[in-house]
Amino acid sequence: MEALLKKALAHARADYAEIRAERQTTTSVTYVGRELEELSSFASVGGCVRALVGGGWGFVAFNDLDDLPRYVRLACEQAALVGRAASALAPVPPAADAVAAHVASDPRDVPLAHKEALCRSYNERILRHERIQTSSVRYRDSWKQTTFVSSDGAAICEEEVFCGASIAAIAREGMNVQRAHKGVGDLRGFSIVEGLDDDCDRIAERAVRLLAAEPVRGGRYTVIADPLLAGVFAHEAFGHLSEADFVYENPQLRAIMELGRRFGPDHLSIVDDPTLEGEAGHYRYDSEGTPGHRTYLLKGGILTSRLHSRETAAKMGEAPTGNARAIDYQHQPIVRMSNTFIEPGPWSLDALLADTPEGLYVRGALGGQTEMEMFTFSAEEAFVIRGGRLAERVREVVLTGNVFETLASIDAVGDDLAFYGGLGGCGKGAQSPLRVATGSPHIRIRNCLVGGR
Amino acid sequence: MPAPSTSAAVERILELARRRADAAEVYLEARESRPIQFENNELKYVHTKSERGVSLRVIHRGRLGFASTTDLSEPERLVARAVESAQFGQEARFAFPARAACPAVEVYDPRVAQFPVEEGIRLGREAIASVLEAVPDAQCYVEINKSVTTQRLANTSGLDAQQEATGFECHLVVLRIRDGSMLWVSDGDSSCGLMADFDRYTAKVIGDIRRAETEVKAPSGALPVLFTARAVGLLLQFIETAVNGKLVQKGASPLTGRLGEQVLDPSVTLWDDATRDYGDGSWPWDAEGVPGRRTVLFERGVLRSYLFDLQTAGMLGVESTGNADRDFPSLPHPAASNLVLAPGAETFEGLLAGIGRGLVVDEVIGGGQSNVLAGEFSVNVGLGFLVERGELAGRVKDCMMAGNVFELFRRIRGIGSRQETHGSTVTPPICFEGVHVAGGE
Q1: Which of B250, B258, B372 is the mutation pick for testing A, counting most A CBs within 10 A?
Q2: Same domain, yes or no, for A381 and A438?
Q3: For the segment A41-74, what is each residue's pLDDT rounded down to a tens digit?
Q4: In this structure, are residues B212 and B401 in contact, taking their beta carbons and an 8 Å threshold?
Q5: Selected residue of B70, B91, B234, B377 to mutate for chain A interface (largest A Cβ count, 10 A)
Q6: CB within 8 Å: A376 and B365
Q7: Is the CB of B122 inside 8 Å of chain A's CB atoms?
């Protein structure tokens, strides 16, 4: 494969060119309600050529590897249409490496019948709860091998094995429908999806309890967020602003996201680190062949660094960070996060609660979205805090605000850092889902705007 | 047209599957797309994506099996994987359909297929120049994407259908940062036909930027809110989910078992229509070969139908409504084609003039994160304006809006008389009573 790709690149008329070729197999099992909705397998081969001419990129994706020289030519022609300046790529020593996946239990060795039976047992466990209307259990494993060669001389073959599951319970009473869910998924192998029986009970009970919860009253609250929700916040609200492609050609944003500027209190540090093996956002090399490493985005509240591709690093005069990632061969690499987390602080959850006379305790994330400085993210579960204790459950809790004001309002950071992956992932541009992990300890945010009735 | 080798692969797979399974269906999808993208006022890239894959669905001993691949060189393995999965698969509640007469629906526009890259680059440059002339500190993003998709569907009941469809999308997005405050405005179209009215998009975004120059504190409370046609699309997504036959079959939809009931305000008539010429969601036949049609969902607020594919219809003992959708790597599932909401009698200006104190909302952030099944939404107002005594008083920021879509559609103050097409949604603007707004006030 490598020799074939190198040969095709030899004739590229470009300042820089690369080819990524991928082989992938995926197995999926889906139960929805009583029925096995899907039990399927997917196999794919495909690749892409990316060429840089005069600062402009051309990109061609394909399934058919037979016609490589034509795709290389087409990519170079398209790049020439775009390019009107000098090409700039931060130098990265070209790697020659082969990276094998390390998993304790490879899902490809597990019989299909066993995967189906495991999903069925989770599904039955959820459905046996009273007032549970329906359920969903989704399982997916995939094996992927990426071969990368570049005109700089890089030749990398990296393998990954992903496995995960998402289980959901839906309770209904008339027009009142409530959902609770739990997701797991990372690069550790099949064991991550085993032993979720208690989680099935917990989500079923939670969905039923949500039926009786009142919608939260909109307004400003002191909020304690659990590690899952706080990690999503760090990723969505701050992480995306640290992606250099948002900033590097935009002078106004560049002025806001100035390195050395204070964005949070001394006790707040946010890190992106693809080297954490086993976590959902792990990789050795990004999609441009740059080795990944730990990057402090915020250190002691100060903006310390941002995430880069080779192009954004060159254009901003900063060092590449190995964060150029593509979800697959149909897409070009863009600046993305990997495993992004808030570093732990001194507070235990008990101490945090005891120190909070009134507020909201929010857990889990149904989703999140940002539009530059504005973010919204919705909690899966929430409780009123009264007199330093958890009181009644509330629902439909959506947090929103200005990220800079919110970061400055984080006045306490917990000691219980945890990471979360899952079947979903991050979406940016047309590329979704990209496997990432989010992490955080519990955090407390003062004066946070919550939407509601 | 797919390459001869691709056509041969479809026939080979069907032939092999016929021997190994009781019934089979092969679906091939081949798409070539050519996106052009401008970022921060400059041409950023031109891409070509050539994508093709095939999936095989079998019914064996009464059960469904499924597998898909982009590798056409090993049809035996694809067939073996599909047949293996049929051991455990769901009970099939339908038979693959035979050939049927389909409505004439235009989904191929030769002007799209022939649309040159250079023309797209010219349109993008001109649009950016006119925005910058009016707003020199704007950052413009333009995407123009054309595609040609070939689908072929063949089954062991004798159906062998093929069609080519074009797709054209263009979007203009403008970011303006002023005094540390960010404003995003956008407009665009997507259709099977050539739609590239950049004069309209630039006028819309420049108008929005002007209107947003005054910022005011967002109000709080239960207020009348006028949703523009584009913003109504967000609310219709919730209704689309609730009429999805799969969710109805699971009992997860709040509309389960409510056919014939007055669910929404009598002013609301909503239908699904796969037969609109050049509609973004149109199809002469759906992804299982069932003819596309027009299905009334709500007639004067009364629930009349759900949307089904073959399997979900079979499970409920009804007919498919011709609403199966699929990408080649996944099984068919019920989905709306184009949703059309009937116009009302009022002008947008008339609706606005009737608001003493409330909001006009054109764009929201965070639509899909709330309890979609129950119709609960809670969103940040991305582009919205305070209305005082019937007039726009300025842009609101830091403002959340929450409510239940089914309740809102029973509290309609007025429906506009002019429909707009936004992708696969055709709707007029609607003014609702008593939307919960949480702002800084």
Answers
A1: B250
A2: yes
A3: 999 999 999 999 999 999 999 998 888 999 999 9
A4: no
A5: B70
A6: yes
A7: no
Residues of chain B with CATH 3.30.2290.10: 4-206
Contact A177 B252 (CB under 8 A): yes
Specify the pTM.
0.86
Q: Do A227 and A197 share a structural domain?
A: no
Nearest to B196 by CA among B139, B124, B252: B124
pLDDT of residue A255: 87
Query: Which sign does the torsion angle of CA B225, B228, B232, B233 carry?
Result: negative
Q: What is the pLDDT of residues B410-439, one digit of tens each?
A: 999 999 999 999 999 999 999 999 999 988
Same domain, A386 and A287: yes
User: By three-state DSSP, how is residue B123 classified?
Assistant: helix
Cα separation, A29 vs A38, whole angstroms? 6
Same domain for A368 and A230?
Answer: yes
DSSP SS3 for B423? coil
Instruction: Say which CATH topology domain B4-206 has.
Output: PmbA/TldD fold (3.30.2290)
Q: Which of residues 145-174 of B touch A (CB under 8 A)?
A: none
Domain total in chain A: 2
Instruction: Summarize pLDDT for B23-75 with one digit per residue, the tens.
Output: 999 999 999 999 999 988 999 889 999 999 999 999 999 999 999 999 998 89
Do A362 and A337 lie in one domain? The reply is: yes
Residues of chain B found within 8 Å of residue A81, distances taken between Cβ atoms: 46, 117-118, 121
Task: Give the CA count within 13 Å in the CB-facing half-sphere of A170.
Answer: 23
CATH code, domain with A111: 3.30.2290.10
**Residue A174: DSSP 8-state:** T
Nearest CB among A63, A74, A133 relative to B70 is that of A63
The residue range of the domain holding A27 is 2-212
Inter-chain touch B331–A37, beta carbons under 8 Å: yes
Contact residues, A window 405-434, toward B, CB-based 8 Å cutoff: none
Our CA-based measurement puts residue B433 at a distance from the nearest CA of chain A, in whole angstroms, of 14
Tell me, yes or no, whether A189 and A300 share the same domain.
no
Gap between the Cα atoms of A145 and A156, Å rounded: 10
What was the ipTM of the complex prediction? 0.80
Q: Look-up: residue for tokens 């809110």?
A: B225
Reply yes or no on whether the pLDDT at B104 is more than 60. Answer: yes
